[in-house]
Structures are given as structure tokens and as C-alpha cells.
Amino acid sequence: MNRDFWNAFASNRGALVGLAILVVVVLMAIFADVLYPRSPWSMVTAPFQPPLSDDVLLGSDTLGRDIAAGVVHGSRVSLLIGLISSLVALFIGVTLGALAGYFGGWVDDAIMRFTELFQTIPNFVLAVVLVAIFTPSIYSLVAAIAIVSWPPLARLARGEFLSLRSREFVLAAVTTGQSTPRIILREILPNSLSPIIVAASLTVATAILLESALSFLGLGDPNMMSWGYQIGAARTVLRQAWWMSFFPGIAILITVLAINLVGEGLNDALNPKLARKGRGR
Amino acid sequence: MSTAKQPVLELRNLSVSLPPGGDRPFAVEQVNLRVAAKEILCIVGESGSGKSMVAHAIMGLLPEPHVKVAAGEALLNGENLFTMSRTRQRQVRGVGMGMIFQEPMTALNPLMRVGEQIEEALRLHSDLDGRGRRARVLELLADVGLPNPEDLRRSYPFRLSGGQRQRVMIAIALALEPDLLIADEPTTALDVTTQKQILDLIRKVQAEKGMGVIFITHDFGVVAEIADSVAVMQHGRCVEYARAEQVLNRPEHTYTRELIAAVPHYIEHREDFVREGTALLKADSVRKVFQVGGGFLRRGRELIAADNVSLTIHPGETVGVVGESGSGKSTLGRCIVGLHKADGGRIVFQGTDLVGLSRKAFRPFRKDVQMVFQDPYASLNPRYRVADIISQGPIAFGTPRKKAHERARELLELVGLDASVARRFPHEFSGGQRQRISIARALALDPKLLIADEPVSALDVSVQTQVLDLLDDIRYQLGLAMLFITHDLRVAAQVCDTIAVMQTGRIVELGTCRDVFSNPTHSYTRTLLDAIPGQQWEIPADLRHLRGERARRPREVSR
């Protein structure tokens, strides 16, 4: 992106803080094996060790596993699922929304009724059902979260396409004989991207929350340590050992907050008002 | 100008400052103006000249603190508006001055009844009781010539047309019988016939109430229609300020002279166009119906946008389609260029009927029929470089990229831009330059017919002339036929050989430019011609010849 964009983004203090936190979380995920080479599932000490004990910085859980190791390794699952399921949701949502908005008429009607079908079922319930049917694994989690998160993106993309479709530069593309896919991909899509990017960044945050909630219910990938799983496993001893759910909880809170801040910063930086003033990009 | 009595409003050395970092430090610089009772002062200028800023400064509507009055005085009946207290300002604003805005569609609160909006000012600034206020509202609505005041008082703004809303705005401004009325381009967004009514209305109420009026406009025709005195503004400075009669007939400043020379007017025409050979395009009872509203499994209301429209365009001919908003003139253009599918009739282009062709079968004809759009700010994709925008058509039709870009540079020079701008993005250009790029894009496919849909209506007068001249030049050079869609008869008069007048989806008159202007047969055409502002005014002869010469030039290159 260009310099103007960066300046506008950087003028939002919160967005910078969010970005910094996000960078830390990403580094944590990348270097998890360096920070904690042993599996987060292995029992390293006595159970119920409070934080700042000898060998476990954030305490140990009911089976003597290191909470800190769990938090660090858990960031991998959270980020992975958050990103991939958002990308999948973005793909489904933008494709359907673009088709509905560009073609209008019965195509629009059909796609939007289909979208409403998904919107009338509560997100979380649908996700639980889908994961339960497909047996919990990282793939079924990504699929389930993507399937429940695309409708808002589809609606947004449809709105953008609907308004851009009748803009004169799009009409000009039609009169100069551009093909329909080219008009959709090269003329309209780049101009509708700003709000979609912002919404997608917030979808990542929701996806992380959804993944945690599913893991909390025991529907996470059984082979991967995740924040939701840690909280779920510790819920029965919440009053005796607060740290077991507190630290993964904080991790979720901070990550989601950071993503929201970045999303807001993107919103400011990509604000379509700038384009309306004739700045263009 | 030198009235003995005290002026209603006097501006002394008014300067309005802009935020630092702009292209100039002052929006308005050292402006001195006076308006006496019963006087109409027109402030004329192009966009960015600071004419609206003067009005906003007087009304206290500047977007402070970014833009503020830097120096000077505005004396309303001898009292300085800039130094008085906030409370006093509010009082004065309601009672002493009234303002009418450009855009009647957004100037009224859509959630309040018309009557309540007029009553609001009365409630704040008069001691009338409820019954008295209601009577006054009815009186005002009748004064501004609105039918059925009693019903209208209870309607919401959405039920009113643009002209009616502007009348309501005038009623609001007049509610407290102010000494000064400020009208900021009040007729720019209106059709020409509505404009005439509103101008008549303003002149009538002004004479009855003996008000001073500041009328801001970019149109010298309107100035000739109503002004007593004229101030011409350029780059924030008042470059000429005198009696209307003098400015209109003996303009002194170069800029004023340029502006007046650029005013579109009927010119004693070049020789009539001689139709030769077969028609390039023949539209035969074209019909287009839109479904308004409606949706899933539900039919909407039908709106007939074009009904039984027939016209022919011969090679090299420019046909003007003139009409007011909603007359179906743009719909006709879009049907021909294939953006809308006509519902009936035939559009025969060089022997092939375009109506009913599939998208694929239509494609070869796209090359031959190209379009120039109205809004140069919306018609160029902001994300592409100029070269890519211009060459998009040829590339889609299989020209190699490199060759198409070379051609784009040639076209840029043809439309009067430098070939080096090909690498830049649209936002780096002004409106007029963008319109040139838009024309270059249309020419890139070597079309035979150019559809120009209001190509100059979004541009300032001086730029308007340049773009019109360019279109005129190009069509001679390339032997193009053109369908020129416009709402402005004066503009049509300058470039068209044949004129079709449209009203509510039908062509009511079709004839040569000369015939339509000198000998209109349909009553609607006469109404349109009558509504052209400033007809009694003749553009000074020494300024006419500038454009007259151009127009009388022989058709040299016509094929």
C-alpha cells in the first residue's frame, strides 16, 4: 500500500497498539516451538501450581500441564483458524455478494434468500451442529466457522456492487466491450474492497471467539492445544484455581481487541470519504 | 450603485481565510459590495471563485474554525454582523436575512411537514399565536404560488417536486419579511422551465417586499434576466463590480469578457447539414418501460421512459436530443449504446437491428457506437492510469497492449492533453481534463457514432466551451456522427445540426437547428425557448465574433 494509506493508519493510536499486539501474538505462534519445545500436552509438574511457581510461570493445570506453554501453542490454533476460516468466508461471501449485486433481478433474489436462510439460524448453534456432524478436527472447525460467517460479508459486497454497478466508469467499461468477469474483477471489485477488508478483519476476531467457544464445549481439534480448550478444561475448578482459565481468557481478549483496533484503523485509513473528495485512492 | 440612502448590506474588505496548506490562503479576499433595498446584486463566478463563501460568511455558515472571516465588516442596516454577540446574530439571522440554497431536494427536513418547517421560524422570531402562525403559513404558501396551501401545509417534502420544494424554501426565507434575501444558485438544480418560474417569483416577491437580494449564480443568462448590479468573482477576488447593464454590454475585465464570450448562445448557423446516402442509425418507434419498485414475485409500477421514439442519424450529422429531466433523453441514448434493452421498436445500425441482439451478438457493434458520460468525476475508474483507461476498449477487442498504449498517447494529444499524462491517475486532473480523457476513451475504438450524454453539464462555462469546441473539432476531423443529449437548448444550438425535443418519453419536435430555434411548431418547444434566461440580452458584438468565426468555418474534412 502507499504512503498516504500508512500515514492515515498510523494517525490512529489504537490501531498502532493493536498492530503491535498482533505482531507479538504472531511471533508467539511462529516461535512456539522455540519458547516451549515440549508438547503443551505433556505433564511437567505437579497439578494446581499457582502462577510464578518454580518452573511454571503461569501455573499448571489440573493434570500438571504448563499453562504458559498452552497459551503460547494455543495462539497457533486461534490465529490459523481465525485467518483461514475468514478467508474462506470472504471468498464465499464476496463471490455470492458480487454475483447478486452485479446481476440483480432473479439472481439477486435467489442468492439473497439463500443468504437469509443462513442468517435466520443462530450462528453458534449452526457451528456446533456442523462440527458435531463432521467430527471435531481443524478442517471441520474451519469449515463450520466459515459457513456461519459469510452472510454479512455477502450482504456488504452486494451493497457495494449494487451501487458501483451503475457508476459511469462501469457503464463505460460495458460500452467499450469488456467481458463481464473482467468488469466484475477489474473494474468493480478493486473499488469495493475497502469496506470489505475492514469487515473481514473483524470477521477474524469473531472467528477466534467462535473457535474458543467450540473448544470450550469440547468440540475443538483434540490434537491441538487451544485457548478455548484450556478454559473449558478448567471450568470445573474455576473457584479453586482461577489462573487456569484466566490466562487463556486474557489471551483471547487481547487478541480479539487487537484485531478490532486494527480493523478500526483500516476503516479510518480506507475511508471512502477520501475517495469522494476526489483523492481517488 | 450610489444610492443616497443607507444600503441594506454593506461588505467592507471582507476576507475569508482557508486552512493552511490549501492552494490559496484566502477563499475570499478584500471584497467590497453593497446591496440597497429593492436591489438585486448578482455575484457571478465559476466553481472555486469564492462566491458561495461570501454568502456563507454573511449568514454565519462558514465551517469554522477551518474557514473563518479573517478581516472586514459586514454591515446589515449599519450593524456589524461579525462583531455582534451570538444571541444577537441569531435574532438577526432569522429576522433580517433569509437564505435559499441550491439543492432543494436536501434543503428541507424530510421528516417534518412543510407547514411545520415554515412555522419554525415564526415560532422563534415572532409573537404570533398558533392560529396566527397557521394563517401566515397559508398566506406564505399562496404568496410563492403553490397550489392548495391547506393540503400542502400538511404534506411531507417527498411529495413535492424540485420546483415546489424551492418555492417552499423561498416561503421559509420570506416568513419573517427579511430585509435581505441571499439566494445561492437557487435554480441550478432545476429544469429550465422551472428555473424561469422561480426567477419570476424571486423578482416578484423582491419587488413587493422591497427587499435587497444577493443572487449567486454561474449563468450570465440568469444575470441578464434579474440583476440590477453585478459582481464578478475570480479566485476569491471581486474583479469587476458595476451596474448590470454595464457589465453585460461593456465588460471591462478580461475575465468577465472571457466568461461572457463563453456563454452558450444561438449562433447564426453554419450552413445546413445536407443528408447524403443512407442513414447510419435509424431508430424506429423505440419504446422502453422501467419497472419501478416491485421485487420477489411481485410486479412494480410501470414507468414509460421512451415511447414511440423515431429518429435518424446520417454519417457526419450531429443530432441533439433536448429535454428536461425525466423526458427520456438519456434512456434513448442508453438504448442505442446497448446499456438498456429497448422493449419495442427497432434501432437499425447500418442495416442491422440492434434491439433483441444477444450480448454476444451486440459486441461487434460496441466498437462502432461509443459514449461520453455526463459526470467526469464518476466516469473514470480511479484505480487505473489514464493510458489503461483509454486503451481498455482496443485491448478488449484484441489490439496488442503496447500498440493500444501508443494509440492512447496519440489520442491524448488529439483531445488537447499532453501525451505524458498517460501515466497519471484520474484524480490528478480537473473536471474539464477528465472529460477530455473520457472523450479519448470513446474515440479509442474508432467509432462511427458518438453518444454524448450531457457531456458539459457538470463543467464550468469556460471549460464547457472548450469541451464543446473539442467535440465539434473532432467530429469534423474524424467524420463522426453524434447524438448529443442535453437539457440546455443554448448548448445544443452550438453543436447540433438537427434537434429533437423530447417531453415525457416522446419526441414532440424534430427539425433542423435553425427551424427549431426560429420557427418552433410545438408549444412545448416554444415554452422551452421562452424559458431560456436572458433572451433580451445580446452578447456584445466584439465578444460574439470570437465564437461566431468558429461556427461559420466551412466543413472542410467532412467525408
Can you walk me through this structure?
The complex is a heterodimer of chains A (281) and B (559). By secondary structure, chain A is mainly alpha-helical. Chain A has a single domain (3-33, 77-274), classed as MetI-like (MetI-like fold), CATH 1.10.3720.10. Chain A has helices at residues 3-10, 13-30, 32-35, 67-103, 105-120, 123-134, 138-165, 168-175, 180-216, 227-234, 243-269, 272-279. Mean pLDDT of chain A is 88; it is low at 272-281. With 559 residues, chain B is an alpha/beta fold. Among the domains of chain B are: 1-96 and 215-262, Rossmann fold; 376-444, no CATH class. In chain B, the strands form four sheets. A six-stranded mixed β-sheet of chain B has the order 6-7-8-3-9-10, with helices on both faces. The longest helix of chain B is centred in the middle third of the chain and has 18 residues, at 192-209. Chain B starts with 8 loop residues before the first strand and ends in a 7-residue tail after the last helix. The relative contact order of chain B is 0.11. The model of chain B is unreliable at 551-559 (pLDDT under 50).
Summary of the model, kept short:
The complex is a heterodimer of chains A (281) and B (559). In chain A, 75% of the residues lie in helices and 0% in strands.
How many DSSP E strands of chain B? 20
Give the low-confidence spans of chain B: 551-559
Predict the CATH topology of the domain at 1-96 and 215-262 in chain B. Answer: Rossmann fold
* Text of the CATH class of chain A: Mainly Alpha
The averaged pLDDT of chain B comes out at 87
CATH architecture of the domain at 1-96 and 215-262 in chain B: 3-Layer(aba) Sandwich
Structural classification of chain A: mainly alpha
**CATH architecture tag of chain A:** Orthogonal Bundle
What share of residues of chain B is helical?
Answer: 25-40%
CATH superfamily of the domain at 1-96 and 215-262 in chain B: P-loop containing nucleotide triphosphate hydrolases
Oligomer: heterodimer
Query: What's the number of domains of chain A?
Result: 1
H/I helix tally of chain B? 21
Distance between the termini of chain A: 10 Å
Beta strand % of chain A: under 5%
Tell me the Rg of chain B in angstroms.
26 Å
Q: Strands of the largest sheet of chain B, in order across it? A: 6-7-8-3-9-10
Structural class of chain B: alpha/beta
